[in-house]
Design goal:
7-stranded mixed sheet; mainly beta; globular
Length: about 140
């Protein structure tokens, strides 16, 4: 197993508000050599709220940004949009919202998977891990 270095900052903006989502910006690199971990998606990120299950946070959008060079080189830096979940799971249109001005403490875990063959089936197994905690003040809903 490898260790990942994970750091994050709030990405909330008073100019742009994504309704129902709390925004953070996350950098992921390998502890062994500092190289960026690229190509991650929503399934690589997990959220643990300090308030427990009452928040039911879920990473709903994860998008990687590129370095400023014109060649489209991935950076290992990700925009992560977190939803509070739903009042009734599985029912559309009833998203919970974040309270403007409220402070939220979140644990953020990043996992990298490898594909292993177990009993003839391909199963993704987490092999690299990193985590950190972050405090975010919601600027919108």
């Amino acid at each position: 197993m490898g260790r990942l270095m994970v750091s994050a900052v709030p990405n909330e903006s008073s100019n742009v508000d994504v309704v129902g989502h709390l925004l953070i910006f996350v950098s992921v690199s390998r502890a062994s050599d500092g190289q960026p971990v690229t190509g991650l998606g929503r399934d690589n990120f997990r959220i643990a709220p300090a308030a427990g299950d009452v928040l039911d946070p879920q990473p709903v959008v994860v998008s990687e940004v590129e370095w400023e060079s014109p060649n489209g080189e991935a950076s290992g830096c990700y925009r992560v949009s977190i939803s509070r979940g739903r009042l009734v799971p599985g029912e559309p249109g009833n998203l919970l919202t974040w309270v403007p001005g409220e402070t939220y403490a979140l644990g953020i875990q990043v996992r990298v998977f490898e594909l292993h063959q177990i009993d003839g089936q391909g199963i993704e197994v987490p092999v690299d891990f990193g985590q950190m905690v972050l405090q975010v003040v919601s600027l919108g809903t």
